[in-house]
Here is the input.
Amino acid sequence: MASTPAQVPPAALPGPLTVAALQGLIRERYFATDAARGTPATFMWFIEEVGELSTALANNAPGKSPTPEQRANLDEEFADVIAWLCTLANVNGVDLERALGKYTVKGVEGVKS
Ligand SMILES: [Mg+2]
Here is the structure.
């Protein structure tokens, strides 16, 4: 993918890089375009990034000898997936930090232990 929200350096944020700050930054910069694209097309971008993450994970799997570029790409693809998930959440009015709150409470159904 040529240009993704994840390529914005964290230093562009006025404070710490939190889930809310990242989602807000992506909303601020891309919401008009993201809203016009809508959920179905945005979901396709998201899934494309998941596929790129899958390839990066395979390139860095145990027993492989990834190049420095392939190792750097692994970081990039994790960031791309989170960025596009933020975009999907923005388009659908989901506050990711609030939603993720369930993972901060022990014993909640559906939470991995
Ligand atoms: Mg990518």
